[in-house]
């Protein structure tokens, strides 16, 4: 019993009337004391019942959490998005309920501060939604732990499916939300009690109604769902948010939904969007005709005995993969440095200063004060035959659950070259520091090329043409990581201090010539 509970009982005891030495001779006073002891027993019984309810809840939660817990070992595959999502959700939603009931000092304070917050859970929901969209996965597949050819032992609960449905509903993705609510309903019918059926029905009714607004001639069974909700749960009342949505739908007669949905649709479906998703799924033919692999040394005496292994991915403009250019020891050094300094990636819109979700990862700058980083920078100079005097600091980025970098150009502002002696990003070299079990390709829609991340390789391309203008064909993106982790190191090489006479920028073959000068093919 905690001090506070005992204090409550003692406070009650203090109300007893102080009597004199004749207490034991007074039957009336003895009756009062007996009555008072009965009240104390009732208080104690109430306290014990209350503690037993808490103990039963904690015991139940212990059984649930220990059965669903996964060890941090490779065979349990924390790189699987379903497993990772379940872990984040338990720590955000389940554990705080238990920890709030524990007696003081049972849990070290530093453990409480390590709990992820609601925003981490929203990030996990967004990651799963992204994987479903890009890789054309069905709600049924994800709900049952099936991702492509993988079948994870972790399956989603009815509550998980309901949360995914709510996430899609709040973003006006009504067709998607209905599929998730259907999965939640199936699991409830099979005995899953992690979410109330009436909550699922209420959301599914509204999602179906709004979907009907968007496609008036198609039936979404919204009337049947409403009748079932009223019949099976006559005392159920809509939450404030759902009541507001319901009133908005009727008052504005669906018009607002069509207008806002069109805006969302137009923003999410630009001319490259479908190509990007298709390439991420590798649902296209990538030609290799005329492409070769060879050694490159640029006539550098130091490289004649140890040239770089180069693979052509595309000829004009050049897209190149270097093989075996970073060792496991160097990778571990870079990873160690990254883990000390990482932060969430922030990418701003080109038109506003608002932070977007175009890039979902963790990143850290690794300066050349670090010996390994400095060594890699010198190697970049040898690999590309370009000056790195005005290049940016090495940047390490880690892409986890659903992590991606949507289609973009590496150039910042094209006018930058005219006002900054360092100029713009002439070229990009990206080291792959890990293998990726599934997904995570680097895709170039205009070139129809998709590059698989392979540990120890590096991908290189130019961002500018001979006139210093953006190479439009070099728009590229990083596909969402479907399973595993993608770790890369980026080196952006600027125009400043380049030997342009050697580069022949006025030559019509630049930048292609840069890679074939002094190289026998």
Q: Would you identify the CATH H-level superfamily of the largest domain?
A: q2cbj1_9rhob like domain
* E-strand count: 19
Quick one: overall form? globular
Strand order of the largest sheet: 3-4-5-16-12-19-10-9-6
**Beta-strand residue fraction:** 5-15%
CATH first level of the largest domain: Mainly Beta
**What's the story with the biggest beta sheet?**
9 strands, antiparallel
Q: Which architecture of the largest domain per CATH? A: Sandwich
Low-confidence stretches: 348-356, 517-521
CATH topology of the largest domain: Jelly Rolls
Mean pLDDT equals 80
Helical segment count: 19
Straight-line N-to-C gap: 82 Å
The rounded Rg comes to 31 Å
Number of domains: 3
Task: Give the helix proportion (percent range).
Answer: 40-55%
Question: Given the helix and strand composition, which structural class is it?
Answer: alpha+beta
Quaternary assembly: single chain
Defining key terms:
four-stranded antiparallel sheet, single chain, nine-stranded antiparallel sheet, 19 helices, 521 residues, globular, iron ion binding, EC 1.14.11.2, disordered C terminus, Serine Threonine Protein Phosphatase 5, Tetratricopeptide repeat, Jelly Rolls, alpha+beta, 3 domains
């Amino acid at each position: 019993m905690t001090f506070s509970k005992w204090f409550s009982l003692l406070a009650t005891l203090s109300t007893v009337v102080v009597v004199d030495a004749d207490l034991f001779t007074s039957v009336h006073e003895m009756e009062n004391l007996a009555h008072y002891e009965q009240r104390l027993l009732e208080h104690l019984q109430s306290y014990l019942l209350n503690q037993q309810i808490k103990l039963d809840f904690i015991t139940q939660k212990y059984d649930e959490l220990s059965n669903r817990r996964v060890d941090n070992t490779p065979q349990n595959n924390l790189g699987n998005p379903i497993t990772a999502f379940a872990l984040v959700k338990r720590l955000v939603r389940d554990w705080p309920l238990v920890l709030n009931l524990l007696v003081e000092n049972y849990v070290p304070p530093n453990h409480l501060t390590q709990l992820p917050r609601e925003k981490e859970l929203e990030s996990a929901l967004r990651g799963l939604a992204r994987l479903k969209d890009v890789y054309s996965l069905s709600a049924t597949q994800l709900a049952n732990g099936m991702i492509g050819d993988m079948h994870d032992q972790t399956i989603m609960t009815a509550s998980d499916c309901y949360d995914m449905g709510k996430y899609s509903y709040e973003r006006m993705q009504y067709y998607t939300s209905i599929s998730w609510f259907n999965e939640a309903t199936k699991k409830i019918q099979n005995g899953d009690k992690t979410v109330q059926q009436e909550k699922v029905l209420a959301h599914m009714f509204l999602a179906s109604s709004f979907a009907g607004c968007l496609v008036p001639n198609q039936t979404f069974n919204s009337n049947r769902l409403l009748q079932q909700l009223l019949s099976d749960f006559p005392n159920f009342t809509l939450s404030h948010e759902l009541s507001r949505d319901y009133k908005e739908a009727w008052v504005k007669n669906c018009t607002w939904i069509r207008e806002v949905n069109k805006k969302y649709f137009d923003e999410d479906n630009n001319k490259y969007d479908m190509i990007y998703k298709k390439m991420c799924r590798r649902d296209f033919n990538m030609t290799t005709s005329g492409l070769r692999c060879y050694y490159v040394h640029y006539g550098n005496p130091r490289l004649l005995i140890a040239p770089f292994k180069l693979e052509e991915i595309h000829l004009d403009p050049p897209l190149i993969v270097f093989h075996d250019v970073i060792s496991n020891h160097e990778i571990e050094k870079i990873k160690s440095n990254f883990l000390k300094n990482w932060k969430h990636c922030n990418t701003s819109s080109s038109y506003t200063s608002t932070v977007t979700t175009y890039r979902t990862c963790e990143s850290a700058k690794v300066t050349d004060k670090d010996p390994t980083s400095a060594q890699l920078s010198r190697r970049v100079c040898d690999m590309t035959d370009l000056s790195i005097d005005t290049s940016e600091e090495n940047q390490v980025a880690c892409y986890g659950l659903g992590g991606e970098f949507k289609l973009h150009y590496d150039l910042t502002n094209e006018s930058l070259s005219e006002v900054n002696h360092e100029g713009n990003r002439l070229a990009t070299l990206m080291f792959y520091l890990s293998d990726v079990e599934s997904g995570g390709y680097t895709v170039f829609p205009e070139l129809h090329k998709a590059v698989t991340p392979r540990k120890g390789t590096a991908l290189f391309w130019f961002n500018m043409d001979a006139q210093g203008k953006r190479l439009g064909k070099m728009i590229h993106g990083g596909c969402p990581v479907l399973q595993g982790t993608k770790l890369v190191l980026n080196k952006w090489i600027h125009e400043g201090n380049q030997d342009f006479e050697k580069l022949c920028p006025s030559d019509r073959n630049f930048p292609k010539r840069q890679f074939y000068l002094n190289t026998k093919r």
